């Protein structure tokens, strides 16, 4: 409701348990640009869930902050599905963080609000991106804004076929960012600011653009992901593996969703990522789904071990 928010365009929503009707959490959606606003897209905890001294559970409150195409006088806000800046995929990604924060039932605030291991924290957000590509999900919301016509099945199939086009460039970009981040934080000496030039060619085999300085625009270095950017790609592997169970049992199956909620979202940081994956999948995580969906061979699926814990207040 606009009257309960910091701007008229912001909306407040409540999450309720479908079976019991019990209110679980609230979240804000601040989706459109305005002067002086944060220019990226992220999910932020505002009130962190925890067990209070009186025994009641403090309801989480969180917010998605983004800068999507605003509505105009003759049309609603129309979001891009794919491309360089996929707005629908971004919205689902950030909503994955919202679910992680909102459905946490960790006893202590320190282990709530998506406070898992640094390289697991993006798994619950990146798994959500898969639903953006599911035909039965797309048919629920992807319609012509004037006629109400749903996306044709053949167009959805072409979209799905093109999902991983040029995936090699995207992967090398993520590896490059992760390597630059780690190189800058791997020594106590003053940082070598030429590291981006060297790592760029080493990873991508493409010449570094002359006259540019990518570190000046690498927001995550100053946004809480310092020495942890590699976790995006690492967690993508885990998120894809978690998705494999939905593939097997039904991508919108309520039973699998409830199990995912109990095994992954509710424990939050009170259990290790390895334990939660084992609980949900019945085995250790592997790279098989990640490689298969990108058309890469997976002769020997490699286990994904646990890693270092770190605080994260804003998940982007």
Structural write-up:
This protein is of the alpha+beta class and 316 residues long. It has helices at 87-102, 123-126, 135-141, 153-161, 167-185, 195-204, 231-249, 254-265, 273-281, 288-293, and strands at 11-16, 23-30, 42-47, 50-51, 57-58, 61-65. The protein has a domain at 168-293. Helix content is 35%, strand content 9%. The strands form two sheets. It has a four-stranded mixed β-sheet, covered by helices on one side. A hairpin with a 5-residue loop joins strand 4 (50-51) and strand 5 (57-58). Helix 8 packs antiparallel against helix 9.
Question: What would a concise description of this structure say?
Answer:
The chain is α+β, with helices and mostly antiparallel strands and 316 residues long.
Rg calculated over all Cα atoms: 20 Å
| Helical content class | 25-40%
Total strands: 6
Overall mean pLDDT: 91
Strand order of the largest sheet: 1-2-6-3
Which features does this protein show?
316 residues, four-stranded mixed β-sheet, alpha+beta, globular, two-stranded antiparallel ribbon
How is the secondary structure organized here?
Blueprint: E1 11-16, E2 23-30, E3 42-47, E4 50-51, E5 57-58, E6 61-65, H1 87-102, H2 123-126, H3 135-141, H4 153-161, H5 167-185, H6 195-204, H7 231-249, H8 254-265, H9 273-281, H10 288-293
Parallel strand pairs: 2-6
Antiparallel strand pairs: 1-2, 3-6, 4-5
Helix pairs in contact: 5-6, 8-9
